[in-house]
């Protein structure tokens, strides 16, 4: 779905008055406090019920059953959830600015589809069975699709509409390939079924080490692009008048979104709606300035992801519901509400 939001994005992005900056700063501190509470809950609450004393024992003892559960499982998935949540939120904010579509998400440019297609190819044709193998295939699949979308979108002459159309077309083709391969290969279907849902339950220290460098680079690049992207969202003519280099900004934005979303998808599988909902909702109280949207999105997206993960562990004890399912259940109604609200506002 393409939503032209250029009129909305022409809002003033000049420095906010001191009072408003103070309110935004306090709001960001409050968001950090909420994130801390959710992270603590992610460590303390799980499919296996443990008392506070048992959780503390597991955290501060080097070995034992509680340490295996709390440190090896919950702590690793909490750290990965923090990193992946921030990556999805930032990539969503970048893509919404790049495409001037406030309802865009990382799937719009085919990045999730590229990662998924690469994983099923690795399983079916290269015999890859380990998560560490999936990570690299998924990341390079996402990167390859990002580059292809940029090329088909016109490369140096790329526009938001061209990029979105190219991403949508490639996504459709890749998901068709994905379904065809899984239907023909039952083993691939069985192994892919869990990965494509999106889950933090397979988090390990090794997975975190593999994706961390990419997430750091992508995060830094996204924050550096906040100011030039502010100009891009005002329209090409305005951006040029402000001295922005449109081609460079769009190319680097594609790179940042691909690195962030590719690494996140490689680690956890495609998790939907986080990169769409949070930046869009954040924009409603920060305004269109990406210098505020990005920090809020980087903090509140992990709140949504880890909160959904905790819910998934609790509702189906002693089993659990994958976080990708919970975010889809939450995100579906929210997405419908956001679309209806925009349509009502346009009438």
- Report how far apart the termini are: 18 Å
The helix content is: over 70%
Order of helices and strands: HHHHHHHHHHHHHHH
Number of helical runs?
Answer: 15
Mean pLDDT: 82
Shape: globular
Class of secondary structure makeup = mainly alpha
As an assembly, this protein is single chain
Residue windows where pLDDT falls under 50 for at least 5 positions: 1-12
Q: What radius of gyration results from the CA coordinates?
A: 20 Å
Biggest sheet overview: none
Beta-strand share of residues: under 5%
The counted number of beta strands is: 0
Notable characteristics:
single chain; 347 residues; mainly alpha; 15 helices; 77% helix
What does this structure look like?
- This protein has 347 residues and is mainly alpha-helical.
- 77% of the residues lie in helices and 0% in strands.
- It is globular.
- Residues 1-12 have low confidence and may be disordered.
């Amino acid at each position: 779905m393409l939503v032209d939001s250029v009129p909305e994005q022409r809002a003033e992005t000049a420095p906010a008055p001191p009072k408003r900056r103070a309110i935004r700063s306090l709001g960001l501190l409050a968001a950090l406090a909420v994130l801390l509470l959710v992270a603590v809950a992610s460590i303390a609450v799980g499919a296996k019920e443990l008392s506070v004393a048992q959780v503390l024992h597991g955290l501060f003892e080097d070995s034992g059953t509680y340490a295996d559960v709390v440190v090896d499982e919950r702590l690793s998935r909490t750290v990965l959830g923090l990193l992946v949540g921030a990556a999805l939120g930032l990539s969503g904010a970048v893509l919404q600015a790049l495409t001037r579509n406030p309802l865009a998400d990382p799937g719009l440019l085919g990045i999730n589809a590229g990662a998924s297609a690469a994983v099923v190819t690795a399983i079916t044709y290269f015999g890859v069975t380990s998560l560490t193998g999936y990570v690299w295939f998924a990341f390079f699949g996402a990167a390859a699709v990002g580059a292809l979308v940029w090329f088909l979108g016109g490369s140096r002459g790329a526009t938001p509409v061209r990029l979105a159309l190219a991403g949508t077309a490639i996504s459709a083709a890749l998901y068709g390939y994905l379904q065809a391969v899984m239907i023909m290969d039952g083993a691939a279907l069985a192994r892919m079924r869990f990965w494509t849902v999106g889950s933090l339950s397979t988090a390990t220290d090794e997975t975190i080490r593999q994706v961390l460098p990419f997430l750091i680079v992508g995060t830094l690049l996204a924050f550096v692009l906040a100011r030039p992207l502010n100009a891009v969202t005002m329209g090409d003519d305005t951006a040029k008048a402000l001295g922005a280099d449109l081609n460079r900004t769009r190319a680097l934005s594609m790179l940042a979104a691909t690195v962030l979303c590719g690494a996140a998808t490689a680690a956890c599988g495609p998790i939907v709606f986080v990169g769409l909902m949070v930046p869009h909702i954040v924009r409603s109280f920060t305004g269109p300035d990406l210098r505020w949207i990005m920090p809020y999105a980087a903090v509140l997206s992990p709140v949504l992801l880890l909160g959904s993960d905790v819910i998934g562990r609790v509702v189906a004890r002693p089993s659990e519901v994958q976080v990708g399912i919970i975010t889809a259940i939450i995100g579906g109604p929210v997405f419908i509400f956001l679309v209806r609200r925009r349509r009502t506002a346009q009438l």
